[in-house]
Design goal:
The complex is a heterodimer of chains A (310) and B (457). Chain A has 310 residues and is α/β, with parallel strands linked by helices. Helix content of chain A is 42%, strand content 8%. Chain A has one domain: SGNH hydrolase (Rossmann fold, 3-Layer(aba) Sandwich), CATH 3.40.50. In chain A, helix 5 packs parallel to helix 9. Chain A is globular, with a radius of gyration of 23 Å. Chain B has two domains: 153 residues, no CATH class; 198 residues, no CATH class. In chain B, 72% of the residues lie in helices and 0% in strands. The radius of gyration of chain B is 23 Å and the shape is globular. Classes of the chains: A alpha/beta (310), B mainly alpha (457). Chains A and B meet through helix 1, helix 7 and helix 8 of A and helix 9, helix 17 and helix 19 of B.
């Protein structure tokens, strides 16, 4: 059977060719998957270090940072580490819901015995993940992630599950490659102020109220209990938000209510950058300049610097 | 239903066996028509009546249009009226209200707004080409209403083209079609290539282009230029991808559609570009608009006017908005300049790069939501904007750059090297490429159900 040409009455030949091609494709898929994980094991990206790195590299006194993109931008590991004079494990990732955050936090506890304190960003407690499929990358290393990913992959076409390399299709994998041979997680480039068009769109949109999802609250509660049991100090924190976005979502009193229910204070930094003109790159995310300004508002006792926060 | 959805995979698994199980052309056409109704009705079943009306009116009026011009005008008025009502009603009312308000008269926007039926621009143009061809005696009127309805509603090209001529498709629908492995392989290859263009390339580039056009003030010249480049490649990969999927599905069904894109960014001037870009539309505009307007038969000045008019209306066909008209007029002016000045004696690659830059700048008008944004984007590229940044993060920019470079390099190689063209036809190379595409989809694809760009036209 020719792929392009003449027909001969051999009905089995094309089916055999199809089966052969499918088999070869699946074998290459497995090889790509194996090679990718060898590469990731050499990466300094924090999730890669957590799931594929050497557990002996755990550093005592490590501060864990958890949350979604706003935590990643407001509390970049490198800046935080320099400011507080302590190792920082930044596991915040874009679009993560609290259930995924809790799974990452629990895995960090299991795999990094040196953890000492945790910053958990709680400004948007959504249950449904925006990027749960990213976590599929490490589902093979974590039963918790595997369970979450199995519940949250409806966006993928079913046949993509045939391919192991499908787990490489996400920001975490590309960031892992980016961090091979590079130091700890890099801070976001300085960027510019939010585009006027984006701010105008926020202003024009009808106001919305954020209501924490019950599943997300339950996940946060269980994470805090787990951290407490392990003797890890937990700080609930609200990352800075552009005034236009704060106006859009209205006064956020629920983090305090929630923290009271969990029996601990919340550090609300939502408005600390109102007077910093280049503090944001967009209405939701801080710039490096904004992150630097935010660090000054962290509790002083988180610092391990000899003469106060650096 | 879109080709890249789960629903379509299930649809195809039911449709193709049923289609090939039918004993003759008529029953195959009946299955194809029923399948097309499901395919289109999946989006909004109420608009099936609209396709039905277009089918019925053109089927009845085309034979009459041969006998009297009044019938021809009635058919043209019906098709264009429908297009005008659904696609341009809001636009023209907006302009009228703005005009009256500028004159100091009180005018309010009406509460009525119409949904744009998916694919209306394509199926009305197909119907119109049939009626015009019959009226001009270029083809005999179709006697079989089932065959004609299948021609209008055939699902592979129904919602986003290519615009298939009746003269080409109706004779194919008159013959029974048998399953062949040759058609299956070739069609599957085309579908796979189209899916990679859409899911891997277009959908990866889209967020970067979207960011730049949502707020060009935030980005520096390099960032904006990168966003425009991303859009140029996104729209190509998106539309060429859809066309290839449509052509491939047709091929599996035993139908042959003409190629719709032939490496357009490898052209050296605008005339060459339009011979390679959306060929089914550009030839439609040439045959049913430019030539009836007089083409180049009435002197150079009239030819230039016809070119600008044709391209301006072509721009308006793409969307009801001034930026689309500006895009069309720019291309019209470019074509006039190319005609007047002739092909400059420039080497291949400088000519290509010059054309690519020109086409990219014109895309700014096509993509921008309004003329003010288009102006801000162009000012930003020129360095007159306030921003400094680059769109997206380093990882997504690197991925986008890699995809763009790969696509352009593949096109350049196929365009310039006879050996490469021969190689791409070799069975082993095709198998390896198909395997690579199968792997690229789960590894690099974006599975968020992005609709094809040309659906909105």
């Amino acid at each position: 059977m020719s792929i392009s040409g003449s027909e001969r009455p051999r009905p089995l030949a094309p089916l055999l060719l199809l089966a052969g091609v499918a088999l070869a494709v699946l074998m290459v898929d497995r090889a790509i998957h194996a090679l990718a994980f060898r590469l990731l094991a050499a990466s300094e990206q924090p999730h890669a270090r957590l799931y594929l790195g050497d557990p002996a590299r755990a550093e005592p006194g490590t501060l864990l940072v958890l949350g979604h993109s706003r935590a990643r931008h407001a509390f970049p590991a490198r800046l935080l580490s320099r400011h507080l004079c302590r190792p920082v494990l930044g596991l915040a990732h874009d679009g993560l819901g609290m259930e995924s955050v809790a799974a990452l936090g629990a895995d960090a506890l299991d795999r990094r015995p040196g953890l000492d304190a945790a910053l958990i960003e709680v400004s948007a407690l959504f249950g449904r993940d925006l990027s749960r499929t990213d976590l599929a990358l490490y589902a093979g290393q974590s039963p918790r992630l595997a369970r979450l990913v199995a519940e949250g992959t409806e966006a993928r076409l079913p046949w993509t599950r045939l391919f192991r390399s499908a787990v490489l299709n996400g920001q975490l994998f590309w960031r892992g490659l980016y961090h091979i041979g590079r130091g700890a997680e890099r801070a976001r480039p300085a960027g510019a102020a939010p585009a006027p068009g984006v701010l105008a769109a926020f202003r024009a949109a009808p106001p919305r109220r954020l209501i924490p999802a019950p599943d997300a609250v339950a996940a946060l509660r269980s994470l805090v209990a787990r951290l407490d049991a392990a003797g890890v100090r937990t700080v609930l924190i609200v990352a800075p938000l552009h005034p236009v976005a704060r106006a859009h979502w209205g006064p956020a009193d629920w983090p305090r209510t929630l923290a009271a229910r969990l029996g601990r204070p919340v550090l609300d930094l939502g408005g600390v950058l109102d007077a910093v003109p280049a503090g944001f790159t967009d209405p939701l995310h801080t710039s490096v300049q904004g992150a630097r300004a935010t660090l000054r508002h962290l509790p002083g006792d988180l610092s391990r610097c000899g003469d106060g926060p650096g | 239903m879109i080709f890249t959805s789960e629903a379509f995979i299930i649809f195809a698994a039911v449709f193709f066996p049923a289609y090939f199980a039918m004993p003759g052309a008529r029953s195959q056409n009946a299955v194809a028509l029923a399948g097309s109704a499901v395919f289109y009705g999946w989006w909004d079943w109420r608009f099936l009546g609209l396709i039905g009306a277009v089918t019925l009116v053109n089927f009845l009026l085309a034979p009459l249009a041969r006998q009297g011009r009044a019938w021809l005008w009635a058919a043209v008025a019906f098709n264009l009226g429908l297009l005008g009502l659904f696609k341009y009603f809001g636009f023209f009312v907006e302009q009228a209200v703005a005009g009256l308000q500028a004159l100091g008269l009180a005018a309010h926007r009406p509460a009525l707004s119409l949904i744009l039926p998916v694919g209306i621009s394509f199926f009305t143009f197909q119907a119109l080409s049939y009626t015009l061809d019959v009226a001009r005696g270029r083809m005999a009127p179709e006697r079989d209403p089932l065959r004609f309805a299948t021609y209008i509603a055939l699902f592979p090209q129904l919602v986003a083209g290519p615009v298939v001529r009746a003269r080409r498709l109706l004779p194919q629908l008159a013959r029974p079609r048998r399953f062949t492995w040759a058609n299956f392989w070739l069609g599957t290859e085309q579908v796979l290539t189209g899916a990679v263009l859409k899911i891997v390339i277009a959908d990866r580039l889209a967020p970067l282009a979207d960011r730049v056009f949502a707020g060009p003030e935030a980005y520096g010249p390099a960032g904006i230029a990168f966003g425009v480049l991303c859009f140029a490649m996104q729209i190509y990969a998106d539309f060429a991808g859809y066309s290839l999927i449509a052509i491939g599905l047709g091929r599996i069904m035993g139908l042959r559609f003409r190629v719709n894109f032939r490496r357009p960014y490898m052209a050296r001037d605008l005339r060459g570009f339009w011979r390679r870009w959306h060929i089914s539309l550009s030839t439609w505009l040439r045959d049913y608009l430019y030539i009836p307007l007089g083409g180049s038969r009435r002197g150079a000045a009239r030819r230039d006017l016809n070119l600008v008019l044709t391209m301006g209306l072509g721009g308006l066909w793409h969307g009801a908005g001034w930026p689309f008209v500006a895009w069309g007029l720019l291309h019209g002016a470019g074509l006039v300049a190319t005609r007047r000045l002739g092909m400059a004696p420039v080497a291949r690659w400088p000519a290509r790069l010059g054309l690519f830059a020109t086409v990219c700048l014109a895309w700014v008008f096509f993509r921008a939501p309004d003329l003010a944004t288009a102006g801000a984007v162009l000012a930003g590229i020129a360095g007159a904007g306030p921003g400094q940044g680059l769109p997206g993060d380093a990882v997504s920019r690197a991925l986008a750059s890699g995809l763009i470079a790969t696509l352009l390099a593949a096109e350049a190689l196929t365009e310039d090297s006879a050996t490469a063209r021969r190689l791409t036809r070799h069975r082993a190379v095709r198998l390896v490429r198909a395997g690579a595409f199968v792997l690229a989809l789960p590894l690099l694809g974006v599975f968020t159900g992005e609709a094809f760009v040309y659906f909105r036209f």
